[in-house]
Amino acid sequence: MTEFTPFLSALGGALIGLSAVLLMAVHGRIAGVTGILGGLLPPKIAGDWAWRAAFLAGMICGPLGYALITGGMPRIDVPVSVPMFLIGGFIVGIGVSYGSGCTSGHGVCGMARVSPRSIVATLTFMATTTVTVFLVRHVFGL
Amino acid sequence: MKILSAFAFGLIFGLGIAVSGMIDPAKVLNFFDFAGMWDPSLAFVMGGALVVTAIGYRFVLKAPHPALASSFSIPTRRDIDLRLVGGAATFGIGWGLSGFCPGGVVPALGLGRAEPWAFVAAVVAGMLVANFVESWRMRSAHPA
């Protein structure tokens, strides 16, 4: 069980949106984590790697900011086995490369621009995620 | 200034991921578990982010150029191809297996636990394999 948190979730979502709007206003960039990270990886390391690294470093400090405000780190629980989790990560890496984006780039920034590619991508990954969770939990019982 | 502002915007993003609960794979997986312990919270994360971004972009994109850059870098493609759909479908399978997506796991690196670092290493490995396969395919399709 995880607690239903409509208010905090909407507030957190609004902060993600604020970050996306500011990054566009100041840098002219899409706040897509796949794209930002991809520009740091060979064979296509981008010339503008510095802002990308700074944005990711800021993201990593997010929980610290959270702790400063609330007095404690956010709690997480990884409810899957290590092999499944690592295979999942590898599959995510392949998928976001070919799909040109993930939840942030397509799901937030692209959907906000009403980009047809992002709408199709978001509906597609939401559907396959739902089917995967169903199969894992209710068919294979992992 | 560019570095500092990028860091600050990343911090706001990471704070949003932490506050919203998207940092927690258990919460993310429960959102997709309609047949089990369904937790609708993620819909509120997406809703909050979309409303702010959609309204904000409308104002921001009216400017002649971004504050610290010469132009807006916005994808212009509109075609739906197999790569896009296949890639997105594949991403969803990985997300469903693990509960982490790239935007959710990067802030989780700051929690001081091992799992997020292992997950990011696996994601980077997948991205590198895809990049190198594609650059190899490009080279064999168009020999210099």
Automatic annotation (TrEMBL), chain A:
Alphabetically list the UniProt keywords: Cell inner membrane, Cell membrane, Membrane, Transmembrane, Transmembrane helix, Transport
Provide GO CC annotations from the record: plasma membrane
Superkingdom to which the source organism belongs? Bacteria
Broad class of where this protein is predominantly found: membrane
Q: Which Pfam families match?
A: Sulf_transp (PF04143)
Could you tell me where this protein is found in the cell? Cell inner membrane
Membrane topology of this protein = Multi-pass membrane protein
Q: Does the keyword Iron apply?
A: no
> Where are the bilayer-spanning segments?
49-69, 81-99, 119-140
InterPro entries from the UniProt entry:
Sulf_transp_TsuA/YedE
Q: So what family is this one in?
A: Belongs to the TsuA/YedE (TC 9.B.102) family.
Protein's name according to its UniProt entry: YeeE/YedE family protein
From TrEMBL, chain B:
Keyword presence, Transmembrane: yes
* Ranges annotated as spanning the membrane: 42-61, 82-105, 117-133
Q: Which Pfam families match?
A: DUF6691
Any idea which UniProt keywords this protein has? Membrane, Transmembrane, Transmembrane helix
Top-level division of the source organism's lineage: Bacteria
What InterPro entries does this protein's entry cite?
Answer: DUF6691
Protein name per its UniProtKB record: YeeE/YedE family protein
The organism is: Stappia sediminis
